[in-house]
Specification:
2 domains, 14 helices, 73% helix
């Protein structure tokens, strides 16, 4: 049975700091709204500021290692309590960890505050601290199956470090490849987690039989993604072969497609928390396949196609999962506000407009970026508006968390 904090002690903690999902889901969602707003304004030339690196570097870095790392931290620090039956970080330690993440966002936006070196160290320290915090309960009960996420966070930090090195040694370290490695690491994490939970979520939500596990298919789907990620991470040492990379992405996408079909996405259309999840998975396999071809066929614009993964895949998966996890861990029924269906649809629309608008009508690129950004802002704005009050309140059932 889970060793839970005494309820009297729990009640002394502000609800927002009683479990990792609370500050990091809300903080990540709000930060994504701020970040996208600033990026669109910067892209338009409507504002002029000098973030760490430059505007382009800052946009890529902060959506992956700012927004993305917050959601990853919130999810893992919440899940580890379920995995190990050991209470997760909460109270003042959780508040301190959240402030470390927040400080990283501030110094990336205003690097002159502490200087570039200290700013980089603050930013890099966050995920390593999360990895240490995650590893402690897992190692305490020797649950090595879930230890996989610790080296994944270390790889995430290496990709982040390469992005920082790209600002100093651009002739040796590619900003794009380092950022893309971060994206694929998030996709890899999503791939592992969807393989564990989506069959169960789908069966429970539709009252149907759970799809049988396919360990070999899971290993192929996840392994091919990690291979592509390693190619990007190792590019300063061994170079980069676009056609080989593209072929691996296509194979990875095909494995994701086969796996997703086994989960029967068509039976989920009446359940928003399910169809939104399956739509994000669709963007994963479709994005990987099209992205793979973009490294082989010159006419396919690689820089645009990456947004199938970042907006539709990662953004869609995050919005769906944080909507579900926030309800479940707040002691509420898994029934989101009806308006969240609009939010889920807007993320899909945002991705499609961002990719295919500039591809087929490059003269209108700015307009498509505006529309795509607006869709993102409304989608995560709806989450913040409806879920924010929930995350600041104690669980409805009186349990810790």
């Amino acid at each position: 049975m889970m060793q839970i904090t005494d309820l009297k002690e729990e009640q002394k903690i502000l609800p927002i700091f009683r479990l990792g999902f609370r500050p990091f889901f809300l903080g990540g969602a709000i930060f994504s709204i701020i970040s996208i707003t600033l990026w669109v304004l910067l892209y338009r030339g409507a504002v002029n500021f000098s973030p760490y690196g430059n505007g382009y570097w800052w946009h890529i870095h902060e959506m992956i290692f700012g927004f993305g790392s917050a959601i990853v931290a919130g999810f893992l620090l919440t899940a580890v309590q379920n995995w190990t039956d050991i209470p997760s970080i909460k109270g003042k330690p959780l508040a301190a960890l959240f402030l470390l993440w927040l400080l990283g966002r501030v110094v990336m936006l205003i690097p002159d505050l502490f200087g570039t070196t200290l700013s980089a160290l603050i930013d890099l320290s966050f995920l390593l601290t999360v990895a240490y915090t995650l590893a402690k309960p897992i190692l305490a009960i020797k649950q090595y199956r879930n230890l996989f996420f610790v080296p994944l966070l270390v790889l995430f930090t290496i990709a982040n470090g390469e992005m920082h090195l790209a600002t100093i040694y651009p002739q040796h370290v590619s900003l794009s490849y380092s950022g893309y490695a971060g994206i694929l690491l998030v996709v890899s994490l999503m791939s592992v987690m969807t393989g564990r939970v989506v069959p169960m979520f789908t069966a429970n939500g539709t009252q149907t039989t759970k799809a049988k596990p396919t360990p070999l298919l899971d290993r192929l789907a996840n392994g091919s993604l990690l291979l592509a990620t390693l190619m990007l991470l190792l590019h300063p040492l061994v170079g980069f072969v676009p056609m080989f990379f593209g072929a691996i992405l296509i194979v990875a996408g095909i494995f994701q497609l086969i796996r997703s079909l086994r989960w029967r996405p068509w039976i989920t259309l009446g359940v928003p928390l399910l169809w939104s999840l399956h739509f994000a998975i669709k963007f994963m396999w479709f994005g990987l396949i099209l992205l793979g071809f973009s490294y082989i066929v010159d006419e396919i614009p690689t820089n645009h196609v990456w947004h199938l993964l970042t907006i539709g895949g990662i953004g869609g998966m995050i919005l769906s999962m944080i909507s579900r996890v926030s309800l479940g861990h707040s002691g509420l029924p898994l029934t989101p506000p009806k308006i969240m269906s609009v939010a889920f649809a807007l993320i899909t629309l945002s991705s499609m407009i961002r990719v295919f608008g500039p591809w087929f009508n490059p003269e209108k690129t700015m307009m498509f970026i505006d529309i795509s950004g607006f869709c993102w802002l409304v989608a995560f704005g709806l989450f913040t508006f409806y879920y924010g009050p929930m995350l600041f309140k104690a669980r409805k059932d009186g349990r810790p968390g």
